[in-house]
């Protein structure tokens, strides 16, 4: 589908569905969006976050993914809905964090060895600012997700309304995840705090003793920053600290973000035109 460049556009579900050219509302069915996409009636109360995730995921898949494409798939609770929607297509998925989910939906699983270039990648986010800078890594998969997104011709993000921010830190209070080589976590934590302020705290596991260990056998620091920064510069500078593997700052990567909104609409945000 042709990607149009709207600065920001809010679509009601029926219009969106018709825009996709896939499920044109039929006059014989007064509320087709309820039926086809599981949307709530527009007259009902505000949609819950879970339903908003689904709205965003379905719209993004319908608008950006076609049969026979190779698709990078992230992880998290929002991506579950995207995989559900992908289940109706024939495509190959490259994904580490949600392998079982991909297989469960009968989708074919591939990897970056066989497909180093992806047609599109789709993923959730913990927060999205006005410039489409993302915080990711709440689930600890930031490094693999950044690699997959970086291999894609188009990187599309899906989120519910709670992730929509003007500036990072407004909504997501847990800080920027930074994946570190285990022996380096104390020096890296001190270096980040000294250079950029705030506090970088070792993420502890919930159902086991000790720190969270990533899929790459590393630790995660959650950097609770104090104020807005130049995220591109900060991302580059943190990555230069010895022992840092990757940061959860995704700067200049997302091509479009779909937010499922409380009123049942889907809001699309593209990067600002400079
Ligand atoms: O970055 C991620 C995992 O590392 C997720 O994409 C992010 O945490 C969003 O998750 P959810 O869709 O559950 O809110």
From TrEMBL:
Any one of the GO CC terms: cytoplasm
Pathway: Carbohydrate degradation; pentose phosphate pathway; D-ribose 5-phosphate from D-ribulose 5-phosphate (non-oxidative stage): step 1/1
Keyword line: Isomerase
Upper classification of the organism: Eukaryota, Metazoa, Chordata, Craniata, Vertebrata
Similarity annotation: Belongs to the ribose 5-phosphate isomerase family.
Coiled-coil intervals, chain numbering: none
Protein name, as recorded: ribose-5-phosphate isomerase
Keyword Isomerase part of the UniProt annotation: yes
Domain of life: Eukaryota
Catalytic activity, as annotated: aldehydo-D-ribose 5-phosphate = D-ribulose 5-phosphate
SUPFAM superfamilies associated with the record: D-ribose-5-phosphate isomerase (RpiA), lid domain, NagB/RpiA/CoA transferase-like
UniProt record, GO biological process: D-ribose metabolic process; pentose-phosphate shunt, non-oxidative branch
Enzyme kind, highest EC tier: isomerase
Listed EC numbers: 5.3.1.6
Molecular function (Gene Ontology), one example: ribose-5-phosphate isomerase activity
Signal peptide limits: none
Annotated organism of origin: Pygocentrus nattereri (Red-bellied piranha)
InterPro entries found in the cross-reference section: NagB/RpiA_transferase-like (IPR037171), Ribose5P_isomerase_type_A (IPR004788)
